[in-house]
Amino acid sequence: MVKFTKEMKEALRVPGKGGSLIYLCTSSRDGNPNIAAMRFVATHKDDKILIADMFLLKTKANIKENPDVAVTICHPLDEGRWWVFKGKAVDMEYGFPRDFDWYGANATDILNEWGNWNKFEPPDEVPPDIVFPKAVQRGVVVVHVEEAYSIEPGHVGEKVLTG
Amino acid sequence: MTVNLTDRMKAWIEAMGCHLCVATPEGVPFVVLGRYAEVTGNGEVAFALAQDEAKVIAPVLSENPRVAFGVSRQGGIRAAYQFKGTGELLRSGQAFDAVSGRAREEKGIDTAAVLLVRLTELYCTKPGYEAGQRLDGMPPEELDAWERQRWKDVPRKRD
């Protein structure tokens, strides 16, 4: 089991709280990659990354057929946030069995705390020409992180977390 | 079909670099940075990769050439696009020499391989109703007008 560092936890928060814009990378079961930027991000316990399910299309379809994902920092990179987190993801949508468990993350706990994300962490820092008119959340993507490697120039591929 | 890029898209790609995503044939994704990016033709983007960067994606690309990328840094939100295509790693030749020379000059990158991506798909990733909209079917003038209605900012190139 991995354990996020303090710096990782600080980075894996919404940008308005000093966190990051992230890229969520998924793939179809036959290897068609997909990369999409996400703003609503948080950590849960020491080894889970949470991402709001808002406007997910291909990402959602990919996760439903293939749980293997990678999460990386898109911006800011210059603060030493050179990480790629790899793991298994599920999209905990409303209507999931309340006792559904994903590597120790309970659906009731996750949806109760993070199911109305836009309300308690609104995208105030997002420029007006980018911000969405109405946030509609359908669930929370829970990534169980199993390892992480570096993308820092000169150290790319080096393990920074191992299970 | 050629994927047309607007001048603004080209500027964002070249100014910020890109996050490059590949996947094994079984669907395990890997990511590296394309710190030096150069639009080498319409629908073709080259990335200069150092040895350690190439090492992560070379084994994957040898089995599955599909590549998806998004613009790094502020580009993740200011240039809300996803670019997809097929990738080829060049280790020598005229294109390698040209791109690696400029990458060394501009970014100090000791290039081990140039990833040449021939684009086949282009998507809008702006949050909201346009997320996931496919744009590569638009003629160049229409795509340019579509973008100008939304954004006009063009970044300065990074050191």
Automatic annotation (TrEMBL), chain A:
<dbReference type="Pfam" id="PF01243">
    <property type="entry name" value="PNPOx_N"/>
</dbReference>
<dbReference type="InterPro" id="IPR012349">
    <property type="entry name" value="Split_barrel_FMN-bd"/>
</dbReference>
<protein>
    <submittedName>
        <fullName>Pyridoxamine 5-phosphate oxidase</fullName>
    </submittedName>
</protein>
<feature type="domain" description="Pyridoxamine 5'-phosphate oxidase N-terminal">
    <location>
        <begin position="8"/>
        <end position="90"/>
    </location>
</feature>
<dbReference type="InterPro" id="IPR011576">
    <property type="entry name" value="Pyridox_Oxase_N"/>
</dbReference>
Automatic annotation (TrEMBL), chain B:
<dbReference type="InterPro" id="IPR012349">
    <property type="entry name" value="Split_barrel_FMN-bd"/>
</dbReference>
<protein>
    <recommendedName>
        <fullName>Pyridoxamine 5'-phosphate oxidase putative domain-containing protein</fullName>
    </recommendedName>
</protein>
<feature type="compositionally biased region" description="Basic and acidic residues">
    <location>
        <begin position="145"/>
        <end position="159"/>
    </location>
</feature>
<feature type="region of interest" description="Disordered">
    <location>
        <begin position="130"/>
        <end position="159"/>
    </location>
</feature>
